[in-house]
Design goal:
Elements: H1 2-27, E1 30-31, H2 34-59, H3 64-96, E2 110-111, H4 114-137, H5 142-163, H6 167-193
Parallel strand pairs: 1-2
Helix pairs in contact: 1-4, 1-5, 1-6, 2-4, 2-5, 3-4, 3-6
Keywords: Cell membrane, Membrane, Transmembrane, Transmembrane helix
Organism: Diplocloster agilis
InterPro entries: Mntp/YtaF
């Protein structure tokens, strides 16, 4: 049960960005075929697995308790960074008094190309690298996280495209960084305390 909770929190926090990134594509009626969704999810999962293995290799140089502490503290720091980033962004928005939520331009209805899918997958993978390394240090299972990442990425792409057409999409976009930060903070504290 503890493993499931850790994996669920980690994967959800890492994939909120995937969901949010799909919103403007949904608004612009950009379709992503099953092959490209598979490609995005596969690359993201493979990158997550590799980054976690790097973290696990590092953790073998120190004790289990120290590894959990280092991994947990790293997740806490990443979570704090996300929360502070959200707060700074909100303050800037208030000062600028800007109502423009998305800087992406509307596009005509089209199908995403394979090249675009690969680029998108690499962006998402790099975004998850720090979280993956920290999770590996904390001895969270790389295999299960990678499988869960694949499934969650697929679901988040589908849901993000659908939600992009609704008002809820803008609300999630506004608070996505904050939600990711809170989830990572919670997981980091959980790993530090070693429940």
């Amino acid at each position: 049960m503890e493993l499931f909770i850790s994996i669920a929190v980690l994967v959800i926090s890492a994939n909120i960005d995937t969901f949010v990134l799909m919103l403007p594509f949904g608004v612009s009626h950009v379709r992503i075929c099953a092959k490209n969704i598979f490609l995005i999810a596969g690359i993201t999962s493979a990158f997550t697995y590799m980054s976690m293995k790097v973290g696990t290799a590092f953790s073998q140089m120190i004790s289990l308790q120290a590894a959990n502490l280092v991994g947990g503290l790293t997740l806490v720091l990443i979570g704090l960074y996300f929360v502070l980033k959200f707060c700074v962004h909100q303050k800037k928005k208030e000062q600028e008094d800007s109502g423009n939520v998305s800087g992406l331009q509307m596009q005509e209805e089209r199908v995403m190309s394979t090249v675009e899918a690969v680029v998108l997958a690499l962006v998402l993978s790099i975004n998850n690298a720090g979280i993956g390394i920290a999770a590996g240090i904390a001895y969270i299972s790389a295999f299960y996280v990678s499988v869960a990442t694949f499934l969650c990425t697929w679901i988040c792409i589908k849901l993000g495209l659908l939600a992009g057409k609704s008002l809820m999409g803008r609300l999630v976009t506004k608070y996505s960084v904050f939600l990711s930060g809170i989830l990572l903070l919670a997981l980091g504290v959980y790993e530090c305390l070693g429940f």
